[in-house]
Amino acid sequence: RYFPWNLILLSIFTLSMAYLTGMLSSYYNTKSVLLCLGITALVCLSVTIFSFQTKFDFTSYQGVLFVMLMVLFFGGIILAVILPYQYVPWLHAIYALLGAIIFTMFLAFDTQMLIGNRRYSLNPEEYIFGALKIYLDIIYIFSFFLQFFGSSQE
What we know:
Blueprint: H1 3-25, H2 30-53, H3 62-82, H4 89-115, H5 127-149
Helix pairs in contact: 1-5, 2-4, 2-5, 3-4, 4-5
């Protein structure tokens, strides 16, 4: 909330997440990474346009998003226990697709909160927090698409 520090900390966090995403992407094939980048860009553009023009209010569905996130969280814990013993590709694909859908809904939620004039909205002084939330949603969508569509390098 303090002027120079919020921009400095946002820059440090953005650079560290960019490094982390770059390291994660280096384990995948270049074509897969570019495909997931294009899909993520199209999804984010379409969700942003939808959030600007729709009358549907995503900000009033916080409880539904929380329940879906808890399903994803506990599903991830179960996958972390099951997958080391025997890899089940279709289960991993379902988890990645569910994660991409949930964080796409979070992107619509956060975009409408940033726009304002809905049930809940961010204060104009919280622009760094809003930018950080949208940035994290896009990174999560990209990583889940990479899990779903990506083929690893050999």
